[in-house]
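Good morning,

Attaching, inline, the backbone tokens for the sequence recovery test we're adding to the shared suite. The designed sequence is right after.
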């Protein structure tokens, strides 16, 4: 599997704090490459990954193929689409008020939230900023979601209509996907990296 992954990515993977994070990152990229190879009928060894200005990865020279990766402990998510997208998966864990005050907007801080809602808001915000290609480079406290599906980005001073897909993987893990348009979402569970016949 590691032979299919870019040397730059391997260096980044090696800098992760623990082996589990290194494996999850490698698995996510391998899935993206493997599916691209299958869908586009391109030899796996010919696929090269590059990055945008803020580090969002993409496969060089392949049109209409966008992917985004996220992982949290035992889960790895690789979202794939013809249009740009962002995805995030988070585990519900207790965090202090001082911590979540850093990423909630002023309007959000006026409301009362339980821990599930707070973690869900983080997942929405990270998914959205990854959709933009900026990830953690954007100040989450400047982002506010509206009930009509619009996102208010105070940094860019703009409102943008997005499609959000929310899925609780189990009682402790939430997945959020962001894209420009509503599309059919198919969730595939992969437990064997050598078996991609159903993808």
């Amino acid at each position: 599997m590691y032979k299919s992954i870019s040397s730059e990515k391997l260096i980044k993977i090696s800098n992760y704090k623990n082996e589990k994070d290194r494996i999850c990152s490698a698995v996510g990229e391998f899935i993206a490459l493997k599916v691209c190879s299958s869908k586009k009928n391109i030899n796996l060894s010919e696929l090269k990954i590059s990055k945008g200005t803020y580090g969002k990865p993409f496969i060089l020279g392949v049109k209409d193929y966008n992917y985004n990766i996220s992982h949290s402990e035992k889960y790895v998510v690789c979202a794939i689409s013809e249009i740009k997208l962002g995805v995030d998966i988070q585990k519900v864990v207790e965090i202090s008020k001082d911590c979540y005050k850093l990423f909630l907007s002023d309007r959000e801080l006026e409301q009362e939230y339980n821990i599930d809602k707070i973690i869900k808001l983080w997942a929405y915000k990270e998914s959205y900023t990854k959709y933009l290609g900026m990830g953690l480079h954007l100040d989450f406290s400047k982002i506010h979601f509206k009930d009509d599906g619009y996102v208010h980005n105070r940094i860019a001073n703009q409102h943008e209509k997005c499609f959000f897909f929310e899925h609780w993987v189990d009682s402790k893990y939430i997945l959020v996907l962001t894209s420009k348009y509503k599309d059919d979402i198919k969730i595939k569970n992969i437990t064997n990296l050598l078996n991609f016949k159903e993808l």
